Structures are given as C-alpha cells and as structure tokens.
Amino acid sequence: MPFLAPSETLTDRQRQSGLKALRFQTIGAAGADGLASGGFLAAFALILGASNLHIGIMTAIPFIMQPVQILAVVVVERFRRRKAIAVPAHLIAFAAWTPIALIPFLIDVPNAGAVTLLLVFVAVRGVATAFVNTSWTSWLRDIAAGDAMGGFFAQRLRTATITAAIAGLAAALYIDWWQGVVVESEVIFGYSYAILLGSILLGFGSVGMMARIPEPAMAPVAGVKPSAIRTLSAPLRDGNYAQLIRYLFLWNFVAFLAAPFFTVYMLTKLELSLLIVVALGVWSQLSNVFFLPVWGPLADRFGSKVILSICSSLYFLVIFGWTFTTMPDVHFLTMPLLILLHALIGIASAGINVASTTLRMKLAPTGQATAYLTAASLAANLGAGISPLLGGAFVDFFSVRHFEIIVEWVDPSRIVTFPAVFLTGYDFLFAIAFFLGLIVQGVLALVKEEGEVESDVVMSRLMNQTRENLRSLNVVPGLGTFAQFPIAGLRYLPRIPGLDVAASVTAYQLASSTREAIEAVARGPATARQVRTGVSRAIARAGRGSRQVARQGTTLAVGAAHGAVAVAYSAGVGSGRAIQAAVRETIEVVNDAGADPLDALRGAVIGAISGGTSTPLRSSAVARHAIRAARQSAPQLGLSPQEAASQAAQAAIEAAEQLDVESQAQVKEAALQELIEGPGSDAAIKS
Fold this sequence. Notes:
- By secondary structure, this protein is mainly alpha-helical.
- The chain folds into three domains: about 400 residues, Up-down Bundle (Growth Hormone, Chain: A), CATH 1.20.1250; about 60 residues; about 170 residues, no CATH class.
- Strand 1 and strand 2 form a beta hairpin.
- Helix 25 crosses helix 28.
- The C terminus is likely disordered.
C-alpha cells in the first residue's frame, strides 16, 4: 500500500501536515486509554472477580510481552518500513479491547474464566503494543528531530494527559450515573459500553490519524550491514547507554512494585468510590499537565539527567507518603493527604516522562536509534513487568502481618495511646519501594550526558522563578502576605530525598497559579491592541489609583511582561514582533497609568527575560527584542532612543544575573551588540 511507504525526503509542508495529524493521533490514543485503563480497568477487573495477584498479573502482562520487541527490531531492520509495521499493530492493539468489553455478555461474573479471558486479551494487546513501540518510537524521533526535543515531547504529553483525564472523568461520571439506574448485577455492563466506545470511536480514529503521518526513510547503515545479533547487542556494548538501560530497568522495577496498587488500595482498603478515585487521578493528571511546560524547557536547558534525578527522588518520597494515609484506619487527614500525594506524583511523573524519553533519544546514535531505543524500552518494560507480580505476592503475604510503634501518654487520670507507625499489607509494599528507590538513584549518577548540571542548579532555577512569580503578587490586594513567602528558607530543609523537591515545586505551583491575576495580559499577545487591553485589565485589578501604580510600577511591569512573553510563545506567536509588542505596550500602559517611566521600562525588560526563561526562547534573543521595544517607546517616555536603549540594556543585564553563566554571557553580548548596531544597522534589520 503506497500510503504506508516511507519518503526519502520530507518537505516542510509534509512535516507540518504530519505533526498536525500527530496531535489528533495523540488525542485519540490517549482518550481511548483514558476510558479503558488505569482505575477504570482495575475496577472492571475486580467486578470480574480479580484478586490482588490477578491485578498484579494484569499490570505485568503488557510489560512482560515487551521482549517481543527483539523480534520487532529484526523485522524493522530487515524491511526498514516502520509505518507499515506500526499502523497494523496499532489497529490490533485497540481491536483487543472489543472482546474484553464483551466478556460480561458471554460469561456470568464474578468468574475465574472471565478473569482468564481478560488476561489473555491484555496479553494480545501487549504483543501488538510491542511492535508499535519499536517502530513508532524511532519513527517519532525522526519526525520530532530538533534542538527543542524536550519541549516537543512535553507538549505532546500535555495533550495526551489532558485528553486522558477528560475521558477518564467522563467514564467515571457515566458509571456513577449507571449504577444509580440499574440493579447491582448489571453494573458491569456499563463498563463494557464505555470500553467499546473508547476502542471503536477514539482508538480506531487514532489508527487513522497515524496512517496520515509521513515516515522519513531510515538512515542507511554505513558499510557492511551488521548481523541481527550485533545490531541488538550494540546498546549493551555502549558503556554509557548500558548504564542508562540498567537504570531504566531498576527504576521501573521499584516504581511498579507499588504504583499499580494505588487504585486497588483506594477502592478496597480506603473504600472510596470509583468517581473519587478517578477524580483524584484527574487531579494528578492536571498537576502533570501544569508542570510539563516547566520540565520540558528545563530539560532542554540543563539536561535530561538532572530532571530525571530530582523528579525520581520526589516520586519515591510520594510512594512512602502513602503509608500515612491510614494509621491504621482512615483518619481526618486521609483525604487531604491523598490530594497532596496525587498532585506531587503528577508533578514528578511529568518530569520523569519528559526526561527519560529525551535522555534515551539523545544518547541513541543516529542510524541505530531503533535498536538503542528498543533496548531501553525493553529494559523499562521488563522491570515494570516483573515487579507487579512480586508486589501482589507481597501484599497477600503482609496482609496478615503488621509492624506497629505506639506512643503512649500516662498520667494519674488516664492513659492515651496512638500509633506513631503502623505498617500492614500495602503499607509494607510502599515502604519497601521507597527504600529500594533510594538505592536506585545512585545508578543514574553513572550515566553521562553532555552538558549535564547538578540538581542544585535546577532547584535554584525553580526557586528564582518562584520568587519572580511572588514578586508580581505584591500589586494584588490581599496577596501581599503571600508574596513575602520565605523562599530562601526552602534551601535549609532536611536533606530527605525528594522533600526539597516537593517543597520547591509546591511553592512554584502555588505562586504560578496565583499569578494568573497578573497574567491577563497574556490572553491575546498576538497584536499590540490585545497586549494593551490585557495590561490595562491587569492594572485595573492590581492597582487602586495612580499613587499605588507609581509605587509598584516596576513590579507591575515585571508581572505583565512576564506573562505576555510566556504565553505569546505558548500561543504560537512567540516571534520577535510579538515580543516587542508585549514589551512596548507594557511600558506605555504602565507609564500612562502613573508609574515612573524608567520603572515601567526596566520592569518590562526584566519581566520579558523572566518570561522567556519558561519557554525554549533564547534569553539573548528576548533581550535584543526588549531593547528594541524600549527604543521604540522612547518618545512616550520623554527619553531619547539611545537613553531608552541604554536603560533597557542595563535592566537586561540585571535580569540575566538570575540565569546560568552561559546565558548571562549571551545576554550581555546581545545587549552590547544591540547598543552598538542601533535600529538602522544592517545586522539589526536582518535579525
């Protein structure tokens, strides 16, 4: 079939068309998985009659099937037609949901035979998925080739997460309604209808979109084509990549020792309804979405390894936190703790997904990506496949055992006791996973990535950004106290793995969310009129007259310009013209509102550079455009163009002090060049 054939060269139009189809493919696949996986599928399995061991097996099967990728690599390298392999395999993977959905119509449940059929078709889906992963990952790498790979995958994961969250919540609401209108014996059929809808409408739609994505021809292998054994063993002979493979295996082994049982724990031990369980999952996914745009650019700037390290430490701390949700029974802090844990695990998962994907792709050499990426995927899937089997056995073993430390207060009139530590069943599993995770973190340190930095650099970047977010809150009535949050104190937290990450990202998230009142400017940064309207609205909300604006001119300009530049990029209009419009209109509106002209100018330039750091935009480019905007605004400020440019350059250099050393040097050089070149030079016109 010609549409499955690879193309030797791709035009820009073909590539853009493929990326558009990729967005729809992501929506379809994520929506189908959101309807027929996670907590929804676990609840379906429990009604069929599944035990803890069955849940562990069901979770493990898709991963255990992944050694089929070895065969898939041979097939891909032999025929070198990834699309012709991925599309049919993708179709089979979603078609497997149909017989799963029909099980209750064929067999009375609960029934051991029904559980067996479920496991069989989950295995079929696992085999098909192995072929998809092998061919699709390499194909996707060629489509997404570029310097901002972290940002690309962050955006793709964001789309998938939002879609899966919406689909999962819709399914839970539907089941909640269904349970209210049918007798108990017919509840299972509601799950079947939802799975059928997801697999047919969304799943098959995803297959159709995948078929529309062009495939670049695989790079030819130089010299004599190596044997299949040599091709498959190449990643293991690459010392650095072999360390990455080892880490991926161990990390997934430890993480999936506990993670598959979160849902079962909430449904059985905590006795929460499916709607609450899915709602918590959606909350976790929203946290995930909120931080994908954070981790992607950070991975591009500081390296994927450091992001993977700090997010993994947070992930394992969250696992340990589950042991406190019962003491030994449900308590008044159970639900608040669950909400916090789901938020933090969403934040950690966002960074892990982005960083692990980009790291394995960066370290895979061109022309050998299929074998390398397959080896990494195989190691991760084997680790994730083995551990749920052990996890299910651990839960059953520890369910009749417990470890307890009791704190007792005795006085003449009474004796008060309460359990300080109580571990039983799932609690043991969570604690074991946490302590194993601390050991696994040391393995990642052996992996080498070009340009990697220390985790303290990234944590400092997060805290600096949080400080900028809080600075913009000073102008919002009622938020002045919050704006004084002692960010510097986070540096002195106890060095418990993951605790510093949890505190820093929580402060970042709170500050970023609350800053929304200031970022109204960013709702329409594509034109000067939209920017002016947004800034005016921000001033109207933040200020109480010209006197307050005069006092807070710099702070207001920082917050407004920060939001305008950051969202201008996310809206797809982050060109030099859009940046200049954002800075220029911020300067002029803040000045017109009564602020000191120099305060308005300096604040807008600082805010623009700060906003640019949350995007893949180069800080030096943002600085140049901000200086040009200041020069354009000079007449309204009563300054000469050269005076405005000089003040803007000083502000840009001041803002650069919060960046890494390389970015500081680039901003200083850009500011100097912009002052020397001026608005009429050939270099300025070309840029």
